[in-house]
Amino acid sequence: MAKELTDTFLDQGKRRRMCDMLERNNKIEDQNVLAAMRSVPRHWFIDPTRRATAYDDYAIEIGCDQTISRPSTVAAQSQLLALQKGMKVLEIGTGSGYQTAVLCTMGAEVYTIERQAGLYHKTRALLNALHYKAKCYLGDGYKGMVGVDYGPFDRVLITCGAPFVPEALMNQLKVGGIMVIPVGDQQQEMKRIIKTGEGPEEREEQSFGIYRFVPMLDGRQFS
Ligand code: SAH
User: Fold this and answer.
1) Catalytic residue list
2) Which is nearest to 70 in space by CA: 29, 101, 98?
3) Is pTM, for the whole model, over 0.90?
4) pLDDT in tens, the chain (223 residues)
5) Atom 26 of ligand 1, nearest CA residue
6) Which atom number of ligand 1 is nearest to the Cα of residue 67?
7) CB 189 within 8 A of CB 162
8) What spacing in Å lies between the alpha carbon of 200 and ligand 1's midpoint?
């Protein structure tokens, strides 16, 4: 195993403290979320030079102008999903793969889409090497899964700031399913949308505060 993929007692201790903080200060009560975040080494998903700060509550640059989300944001989004083991989850914005690994550890069957080729190749290789069984796709998250029929999904999670709720993604969500999506331009409102029927009006929406994500980019900027 490469040197940077070790997990020392120091790392584990910091991770435990991080999860204690999430439970105490960020109202994270879902024990499945806390257990997963206690177990997934976040420092494996960032540049080794940033290891010392891997368990502080900050977003960290991961290249290609993107960031790994703050632990409190990963915890909040994971909790809002109200995930049960075995559920099929579509994630938009693979990025570092950390959120993907947390969802896999929570027992989900994860399909994840990234639009940047550099991140897609690097993260897919990392998740494979670490034996997380997520299925990674290079594509445009506004369209969701195209050409392969893995849907509909129990849950859809968007990990970049969406200017609006993409209809294609609502269509790939099961009736009774939940989408967690940060909506807005400069800053985003975290929304949980429950799909109550097939019609475009048949949804229940709740808001969970303001966050700042990197933008969800559209197809024209696809690289
Ligand atoms: N879940 C990630 C968050 C990464 S930041 C993590 O834990 O590291 C958001 C990611 O969304 C970036 O990697 C960005 O390239 C990606 N992204 C932006 N627009 C997208 C789109 N239209 N489709 C798919 N991915 C997109």
Assistant:
1) 69
2) 98
3) yes
4) 455 589 999 999 999 999 999 999 999 999 999 999 999 999 999 999 999 999 999 999 998 889 999 999 999 999 999 999 999 999 999 999 999 999 999 999 999 999 999 999 999 999 999 999 999 999 999 999 987 778 799 999 999 999 999 999 999 999 999 999 999 999 999 999 999 999 989 999 999 999 999 999 986 444 4
5) 93
6) 5
7) no
8) 26
